[in-house]
Amino acid sequence: MSQAQPFFENDSVFNPKRTAWSSGIIGAGWAGSILTLRNVWYKESWTNDFHTFDDSRQWLGMDKAGHFFTGHMITKNISSVYRWSGIERKKSLLIGSAVGFGYLASLELLDGYSDEWGFSWADVGANALGVAWYAWQNLLWEEQRFKLKFSAHLSPYAQYRPNVLGNSFSERLLKDYNGQTYWISITPSQFLNTSSTFPKWLSFSFGYSIDEKLHGDLNVFNYVDTKSGVKTFHAKSQYLFSLDIDFEQFNPKRKWISTLFKVINHVKVPFPTLIFNGNKLEVSPLYF
Questions:
Q1: What is the mean pLDDT of residues 54-80?
Q2: What is the per-residue pLDDT across 221-262, written as a single tens digit (0 to 9) for each?
Q3: Which of 149, 169, 211, 271 is close enough to 183 for a disulfide, judged by CB 3.0 to 4.6 Å?
Q4: DSSP annotation string for the chain
């Protein structure tokens, strides 16, 4: 009689019980979230007219970076769940990729019936690239060497368009692209031999964000204030360089801590950062 595998460790052989539970939870989450969004988020904007919408040039590409990141994140985590269930690596990757792309495509279909948005082929393309970003690294190295990460802070711009950039703390983190940054973190130790003395956990991060972007289509936005007059905002892209910590390079004895590190590793650790903002070079002592 074989010994049961510890909960936080991947099963070495196919585990029907884990697979059934994983598939049931994923399926219920997929269906439940779609139904909830349809009946709550899209309730007021729903139409019976499916239509497309070209938003490929909006928000200086930040929304597409978000789709790219999300496609990668879902694929990574679903693939990991099926590896945990004892399914072979390439099959787990195939399942994770299918679920990642399929789920985001179903969200895009909801957009297609909304009079506020529409089905976006640009979004679908960004989703697919995010899925592929995880898949090719997994096939080539069996690990992620160009890790996608996210960070966010509250920008000062939501006060000027709260209906678009958010009112509450959570809305501003989700809606205000000016406060979001998407990163590619590279850990040099993953490319070096085991005898190297370079810190295994140290990463270099390259980020992308935007600044003074208050309207999806307009790069120059005039805000009229009855007291102070007209305030003009000039949208620009930001390119960032910083250090980071790769928590997945640590090898804790307790497997649940290793699992926790994998979750934490989706977020970029705050560090001093160089910011190329338009034609200016800025330094942030601690950038979130």
A1: 97
A2: 999 987 778 999 999 999 999 999 999 999 898 989 999 999
A3: 149
A4: -PPPPPTTS--SS--HHHHHHHHHHHHHHHHHHHHHIIIIITTTTB-S---B---TTGGGGHHHHHHHHHHHHHHHHHHHHHHHTT--HHHHHHHHHHHHHHHHHHHHHHHHTBSSS-B-HHHHHHHHHHHHHHHHHHHHHSS-SEEEEEEE---TTTTT-HHHH-SSHHHHHHH-GGGEEEEEEE-GGGGS-TT--S-TTEEEEEEEEEES--SSS-SEEEEEETTTEEEEEE-EEEEEEEEEE-GGG---SSHHHHHHHHHHTTBPPPEEEEEEETTEEEEEEEE-
